TrEMBL record:
Domain Fumarylacetoacetase-like C-terminal, first and last residues per copy: 93-316
Database matches in PANTHER family: FUMARYLACETOACETATE HYDROLASE DOMAIN-CONTAINING PROTEIN 2A, FUMARYLACETOACETATE HYDROLASE DOMAIN-CONTAINING PROTEIN 2A-RELATED
GO biological process: small molecule metabolic process
The entry's keywords: Metal-binding
Pfam families, alphabetized: FAA_hydrolase
Family affiliation: Belongs to the FAH family.
Protein name as annotated: Fumarylacetoacetase-like C-terminal domain-containing protein
Keyword Magnesium recorded: no
Source organism phylogeny: Bacteria, Pseudomonadati, Pseudomonadota, Gammaproteobacteria, Pseudomonadales
Record carries keyword Transcription regulation: no
Gene3D superfamilies for this protein: Fumarylacetoacetase-like, C-terminal domain
UniProt GO molecular function: catalytic activity; metal ion binding
Amino acid sequence: MKYQLFAYQSDAATPATGLLLGDRAYDLSRAAKAASLDLPVTTIDGLLADWKLSNVQLQTLVNQVAEHPSEYQAQLLDLNTLKFAPPLQHPGTVYAAGANYKDHVEAMARAINIKPPVDPRSEGIPPWHFIKAGRGSLAAHKQVVKIPEGTHKLDWEAELAVVIGRRAYRVSEDEALEYVAGYTCANDLSSRDHVRRGQVDPSSPFYYDWTAHKCFNGACPIGPFLTPAEFVETPENLDIRLWRNGQLEQNSNTSNHLYGVAEQIAYLTQRIELFPGDVLLTGTPAGVGMEKGVFLARGDVLKVWIDGLGELETTIY
């Protein structure tokens, strides 16, 4: 039976973990105790450390709750009143794919007045990634994210996020998805006016600043739910949308990936080992603000929706 995990703020210092079954949410720790199930850890970070075992234990709990829902009334949570936390409290590295939807690549080329590139595959070009700061970048569902100081061109990027559940090194494309724990929604917020330093000569090695462009507090809203990989038939056929203040800005499908999730994982692991809790942002489709010269302002509300995974909301301040 399908289940999803989420984190929420509780009275304890560490956020608690929730278990979502359909439209009913439960506190994971209290539900496991009621089921007499010994879960050594209940944080999502901890569960990922031995995801194979955790997934078996969670499925046992899910089956018990589904078969005897009346016995778990005391563990129910109200999703409408919860304050969500990022699913991961201690994420590993966040790898983000650049230029991974053909329509986005073409639109951005027009926006910055360069020749649209040909299909990189035809030139034998592999995927490429940059890194976003992990713990400092993550923001929770319905969290307010402040516009970074000095940023006037803050942009949105709806993305499918992949959470790694096993150590992966030099894996093949055919086996790559076996290392995925689950999927969630993400928004790769970007300070477009900081990617280049206008006062620096373009020939200087100090001209580009990808850290300022992609890394700031709240730069990576993620969640609200982590959906185990077994409940996603394929990550390459998921509708993905983003609304800004109720207006649809991005509307695509992951089938438009230039490089699929398996290919990205296989590529990354040829040069570096991936660990449980690492996150892979898989690229964004056309419709970002940079393509239209429209950027975020205080009070804007963004909603990222991916079919079967949920909806992630962020307010800009």
